[in-house]
Amino acid sequence: MDRPPSPPPELTGVVSTDPDARRSVAGSRGPIWMVPAAVARPRHIDEVAAVVAWCAAEGLPLTPRGAGTGMPGGNVGRGLVLDLTAMDGLELRADGAMVAGAGAVAATADALARERSRHFPALPSSAPWCTFGGMISTDAAGARTFSYGPTHRWTDALRVVMSDGSIQTLRREAAPADSAPWAGLHATLRSLELPAPPAVRKNVSGYAVDRFLATGDPIDLIAGSEGTLVVVAEGTFRTEPLPESQGVALVGVPELDALPELTARAESSGASACEYFGRRLLELGRLLDDPRVSRLDVRAGALLVEYAGSPEHVAAGLALWDDEAITASDPETVGEIWGLRHAASPSIAHAAGDRRSIQFIEDAAVPRSALPAYLRGVQAALDRHGVDAVLFGHAGDGHLHINPLIDLRLPEWKETVRGVMEEVIDLVAELGGTLSGEHGDGRIRAGGLARIWSAPHCRAFRAVKAALDPQGLLNPGVVLGEQAADPLEGLAEGPDLQRLVKPILPSTD
């Protein structure tokens, strides 16, 4: 699309086709780059509704977007990008509820809560930048989802704009399962007699139809839908008192087969987080040089297990690991040990040299018992294609991040990416997993859903989209994908990576 239709007068100053404005929303934290035809930057929900209604009347696709921290391409598009970052209002009510605009930054909200000795437990690692609209769209999660659950569990109300431009307010205590369009959709899904979904602890692949069927609450369906069903303008989220105490155990993992037992022990003992550092991360991040890590048996990596709550609960949890871990409960040392994880990424980027971490298979979740098979299978696929990678993440939830390091100077780099991706999708299907535990399908993974989900589930996903976005204008190509679409469209086409996409010239020596 070269030029969008002219917007109505009431959207003057909201919609722009300026080339610099369009390029400013063409990329994201992930590797997909798409320059849109136009950008809209609304300041309140009425302007959002006006933009959506105009797009519906003109048949103009639109992609809702927050801070651009999403990884798999669900926040970029070719039509109009709806930049919601100006809608950043925040209010912490006396009852501890946080009312946040779609553009409010998660860490800013959490800091506001901490001024009253409260916090928002579902913060992802991108909290310093990500927005609440994006968190709902991906049902965001993080390290402490292990005990606290993802964003939807902390969401009490949403104000949303439907695909026709109408506004709805959805509340947990008054879930409108008997109102349009929710009642008819609920009945349609019930008639499909869906089989059980994949038995994983975290999932934001496809639509949460099983959750919606269980509760009848539209909030449970909207969470994780990646801006393909409605536009989230505002939400009300619960906070809770800060824990009295925290402590961590850094546990060596001598072999991959130990992971299911170690993670189960963390869960049964009430841990708040259970994070895995793969051996390659320890090597590239130079964590093996740290004297705390070098004392442990880390042949297959390490686990960081956290406890939060009363001092007694923390002490009891740490005591379970005394013989095989480094433990700490003083705030300074706890911060230092968590810092080992946070400091690893810059070290990896430095060690990668001319290679780049291209996140195309980075977010699958499998049953926790399948973790050893998953890690071995991924490593085998990487080895077959000659790709180095860093593996880490939320082992307690069976959900790991894989960051393949790709040399974009090689002419066959995209074929390599495609080959690894195809093998890993097959592996996830074989192990009964899903393609995303917290970042969503986006564009990269949308084409793989039919290989993971049952035919009735795929029919259910299409029924959800047809009921809530009958024109198919909200974020087309995301979650369900489009026929004949290339999942790697726009991959590494941004200016930061394009400078590397050139063949390595033969030596003249």
UniProtKB/TrEMBL annotation:
Record has Oxidoreductase as a keyword: yes
Keyword vocabulary terms for this entry: FAD, Flavoprotein, Oxidoreductase, Transit peptide
Occurrences of domain FAD-binding PCMH-type (ranges): 32-242
SUPFAM superfamilies, alphabetized: FAD-binding/transporter-associated domain-like, FAD-linked oxidases, C-terminal domain
Pfam family, one: FAD_binding_4
Biased composition (Pro residues): 1-10
Cofactor: FAD
PROSITE patterns hit by this protein: FAD_PCMH
Span list, region Disordered: 1-27
EC number: 1.1.2.4
Family statement: Belongs to the FAD-binding oxidoreductase/transferase type 4 family.
PANTHER family in the cross-refs: D-LACTATE DEHYDROGENASE, D-LACTATE DEHYDROGENASE, MITOCHONDRIAL-RELATED
Protein name in the entry: D-lactate dehydrogenase (cytochrome)
